[in-house]
DNA sequence: TTAAATGCAAAAAATTTGCAGACGT
DNA sequence: ACGTCTGCAAATTTTTTGCATTTAA
């Protein structure tokens, strides 16, 4: 709330309740799809329209305020733009988490082997989370 | 042609000209989107329908014969199912290439740090390919 | 011969757009 | 007060489905 508002102001866009809801949802550690977001926000804010969610997600992507996370065989999820990091996807419960890993070594290898000038990497691990593994 | 036919037979599905075209397109080193495929196949096979491309792509995904490659900010591409490998995406020309890298070390790190039981990883580098870098 | 595949057209799902009214600054 | 944002409905785009016909085995 506080910080969501500040984030929006820093990016120079109007602070509306709809946007505050979106940012607040995306601030959690769970990464959500467009429809997750819409369904979730509707509970506390029934009048929000799906078009508004789309418009804001697109606008926020354009201004590099949020990012899309594409997971194999899954709908895209969205997250606030943070320091570069990798992702873990649990095939059992569907959760997506962040993980920080040092990718310099592997990126250097890839650059040397391919001749590419690499400036971004997307690394997603799929498996079973500890909680699901127990059951 | 030869080998496309063999691949289809090995997977126990009927060998049709439409399927041969799809497999043959996907055999190249360039990874294509659904629409790339459709447009490209239509040139040599004008009667193919988009629905057929979708049906076959879906069926081939289900039988694990091909795989979807999701690239940030891009349409999905498809490739024949090969040994695990990573991808390079050129932000200039849009090309997607395979690259083989040893991911054991980083995967072990991720598993230890997170407690996940990891069985798959998707690693995509974005940057500029050597050819585009020259221009 | 027969089950499966194709192509078409229609249906459904996902995303975008235009615009009048509401709202933030 | 002004320009932006919202919500609605309609338009587009993407993907799926049903079905009559064709085709591979």
* Sheet having the most strands of chain A: 3 strands, mixed
CATH C-level class of the largest domain in chain A? Mainly Alpha
Biggest interface: A-B, 37 and 37 residues
Content-based structural category of chain A: alpha+beta
Beta-strand fraction estimate of chain A: 15-25%
**Number of strand elements of chain A:** 5
Run of helices and strands of chain A: HHHHEEEEHEH
Instruction: Please give the CATH architecture of the largest domain in chain A.
Output: Orthogonal Bundle
Number of discrete domains of chain A:
2
Rg of chain A to the nearest angstrom?
17 Å
Report helical residue fraction of chain A: 40-55%
Give the termini distance of chain A in whole angstroms.
36 Å
Task: Tell the overall outline of chain A.
Answer: globular
Oligomer: homodimer
CATH superfamily of the largest domain in chain A: Winged helix-like DNA-binding domain superfamily/Winged helix DNA-binding domain
Give me the CATH fold name of the largest domain in chain A. Arc Repressor Mutant, subunit A
The DSSP helix count of chain A reads 6
Overall pLDDT score of chain A: 95
How would you describe this protein?
The structure is a homodimer of 135-residue chains. Chain A has 135 residues and is an alpha+beta fold. Chain A is 44% helix and 21% strand. Chain A has two domains: 2-80, Arc Repressor Mutant, subunit A (Orthogonal Bundle); 86-134, Ferric-uptake regulator, C-terminal dimerisarion domain (Dna Ligase, domain 1, 2-Layer Sandwich). The first copy, chain A, has helices spanning 2-10, 17-27, 34-44, 50-62, 104-114, 130-134; strands at residues 66-69, 77-80, 86-90, 96-99, 117-128. In chain A, strands 4-3-5 form a three-stranded mixed beta sheet. In chain A, α3 packs across α4 (50-62). Chain A is globular, with a radius of gyration of 17 Å. The N and C termini of chain A lie far apart (36 Å). The model of chain A has no long low-confidence stretch (mean pLDDT 95). The first copy, chain A, binds a DNA duplex (25 and 25 nucleotides) through residues 13-16, 18-19, 34-35, 47-52, 54-56, 58.
């Amino acid at each position: 709330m506080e910080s969501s508002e500040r984030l929006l102001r820093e990016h120079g866009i109007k602070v509306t309740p709809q946007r505050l809801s979106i940012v607040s949802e995306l601030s959690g550690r769970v990464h959500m799809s467009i429809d997750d977001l819409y369904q979730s926000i509707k509970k506390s804010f029934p009048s929000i329209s799906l078009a508004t969610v789309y418009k804001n997600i697109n606008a926020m992507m354009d201004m590099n305020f949020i990012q899309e996370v594409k997971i194999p065989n899954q709908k895209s999820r969205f997250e606030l733009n943070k320091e570069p990091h990798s992702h873990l996807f649990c095939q059992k419960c569907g959760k997506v988490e962040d993980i920080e890993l040092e990718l310099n070594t592997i990126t250097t290898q890839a650059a040397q082997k391919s001749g590419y000038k690499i400036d971004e990497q997307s690394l997603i691990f799929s498996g079973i989370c500890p909680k699901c593994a127990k059951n």
